[in-house]
Target: Cytochrome P450
Amino acid sequence: MTASLSLLLLESLTAGRIALAILIFTVSSFIVDFTWKPRYPSSIPRVGFGGGIIGTFRNWIGYVTHFNAWVEEGYEKYTKNDRAYVVPSAPSRPQEIVVPRSQTSWLLEFPDRDVSSQEAHDDLLHGHFQFLKTNDHFPITTLHKHLARNLVGLLPGIQEDVHECIDKTFGTDTENWKTLNLWEAWLSIVPQVTNRVLVGKETCHNKAFTDSQVAFADTVVRNSFILNMFPKILHPVVAPFIVTPNWWHWRKSFRMVRPLIEQRQRDMAHKAAGHPDYDAWEPEECLITWLIRQAQADGCADGLDPAVISKSLLPIEFAAIHTTVITGHNLILDLLSADPKENIMDVLKEEASRVFSEEKTGYWTKTGLSRLHRVDSAIRESMRFSHFATALTHRKVTAKDGITNSKEGWHVPYGSYLMIDLAGTHHDPGIYPEPNKFDPLRFSREREEFEARPQDQKDPEEALRVKRLGMVTTSDTYLPFSHGRHACPGRFFVAHELKMILAYLVQTYEIKPIAERPKPIWIGQTIVPPIDAKIEVRRRK
Ligand code: HEM
Model:
């Protein structure tokens, strides 16, 4: 009886019926998902293809190609009039409320328990699945606390790695021009240099280790796209399969970094116990040491597990590597396609050579790097001009009863998403004259003019304002590192790293200009950089 019933069931399973069942299941999952999403008050205006079932469906599809156009429209219609508006998002995500610039402080000053950056990032990247169930709060707070204060001591090591990677990648031939893929060139510099401050001198030279971190980060980006296309209700079922490569890349990196973590813990324990062999020994300053110190200070035994330490590196590697590679890639493309009349590479070379020659030891110091006004300005301007995401400041409402915007009179519930538009702000002629022109010395002219003045004509308030034109200063009009207390804690390191790279490149190599800057492609709010772009270089004699 049971056998004949099973046979009957099997016979009725045609390909058409299976496809129909999958379709019904997927559509119902999207409907359930839709009902879970936060509802925004109708008083907040919207951009996109409209509401209702059809409008929502069109918005999901349109998100891939129309997101930037929607945000441009919203900027003109609402942001410029100090109003928030709603922009459609990918199928599995709630729509986002774009907050006008005048309300930046209102949004960023909420306590984390009410408006969370961590939960917004976690949802955006599906961090809970992708970062293998690590609590990224711990490595992030550890980095905030330790990186900036240790940076000066790390500068010589960073410089050594910068020079080593550039020499290896760009070559030493002073006769012949060499053609390089620019994206790959940056990928052969940034992972090693970044890992100098994350895992230290020895492991940052282990290419298999840095490759596994880059592969992990690539996988996170790819999986985010895939998971965003699934209804959220299905994530617990599909995500564990989708993130299999994440586990694989992490295991590979863990095998390589585990001996270092265990040795560091043993050495630090001997030192703490006052072992005489360790009198002169100090641990190498890097994220691994800082994580161990922080876990000890917090009395957190879990945080000392080598597997946990190695997993804690993942969100930081992710935050650090591709952001820097894209920024460097944009920087060189912007510089090489700048107005030839400005002769910008020679201008930067002159500054880099002059300031470096005043460094006594052959190594960059913090003071020396801070005097590279033109190099700094070129990087800051490229980050303004060639943004790699429409918005980089996202927040999720985590207050149980939601939050109220008293200025506009609306209230939004738990789970709402808010963001600050970077692209519109950076290209607003009211903030940046001629915003669609790459003007590499935009931020240094005023600084240099101020510094050239006699001392008695320097007003301290103006001195402070001019100093704030440097690349690490964030504001509501300059957002590549976001703004407020969650602004990127890696930016002080990145500023030094990129300045050293650019200074060494212009001093050591000639690079041929390019006639037209290759254009990126946009998918939703994320850029696909022109990774095929090539450059021609020759080492100076
Ligand atoms: C040019 C390169 C970089 C850019 C453009 C960049 C940009 C950003 C942005 C926009 C945020 C979001 C802040 C927010 O939500 O308000 C962020 C966060 C973060 N970045 Fe960076 N970043 C870069 C490099 C780095 C590096 C090199 C590191 C580490 C060494 C790093 C570590 C972090 C961390 C840990 C966070 C989370 C901060 C928090 O939530 O409190 N970043 N970054």
